[in-house]
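Handout, section 3.2

Students often ask what a structure token actually looks like in practice. Rather than define it abstractly, here is a full record for LysR substrate-binding domain-containing protein. The first block is the sequence as you would receive it.
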Amino acid sequence: MLDVRRLRLLRELARRGTIAAVAEALTFSPSAVSQQLSVLEREAGLPLLERTGRGVRLTPAGQNLVRHAEAVLERLEQADADLAEARGGLAGALRIGAFPTATRAIVPAALIALARRHPGLEPMVSETDPAAVAHALRAGDLDVALVHEYDFVPAEPEPGLATEPLYGEAMYLAAPAAEAPDPSETRPREAPDPSGGSDQGAVLRTHARAPWITATPGTLCHAMTVRACQAAGFTPRVRHQVDEFATVLALVAAGQGVAVVPQLGVTGPDDPAVRLTRLLMERRTNLAFRSGAGAHPAVAAFGAALRAAVPPDLAGSRAGT
């Protein structure tokens, strides 16, 4: 009989690429991971891994077994959801991953509603970049997470994970107000037009020679800005790399460059030193969880609380609609 825990290790190796990465993610030693995979090979009765220099890769039999492992793990999540439903009354920890703007603007209201309806549930929020969510969910470090995608950075399908749409946001080009006007109308941040906007390429090209402020490399926000500029015909000259949008806007106000920011990143009092121009692109936010866990009462309750907490000005631009 194949051991589920060893199947999980094989699945993680297929996703992470190295035994060292699997060991770090699952808090094992590399030798322990290798040992358990060797046992799994003996249980399977044929080679699942082959050496490639200093690394390993899955054999065709190993790749096929990973596909079966995904199905097995999904069924186990469904079984866990059924048991939780049968027990009645939600209790215990719910580990939530969320990115900063959602953590500030939406998650607190959702947690208030969740506490009123399910006082025995203990939500535990960790700020997590969406690029790191898939591994954290598969490793069991998170139970549910908010993830986002941009028009220029679409989400890739993640084996073992499922998502549900939550909302969409407008995107803005933030520039110092002292600069010459963009070739478009600037729209107020309080009432963005979800169906219209500026000539995006023209707006971005106006700032082709300006210094840019982006998120740190490796994040979806960084890739979004770079790809949007490249689609407009230039590569941005990056001066500052900052992840917090409030700080990004402060740098823009100080004349340090221009940036692309999402709607939730520009909430708060208007800053006369910053001019915001509505772009055609959007950021879409989804709820992510392990395949089979969508019916878990705690995951479903958190999802319902999140949807109720979405601000009205975002509700008309929900992801997937």
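Discussion prompt for tutorial groups: The chain has three domains: 4-83, 90-167+284-315, 169-280. How would you have guessed this from the sequence alone?
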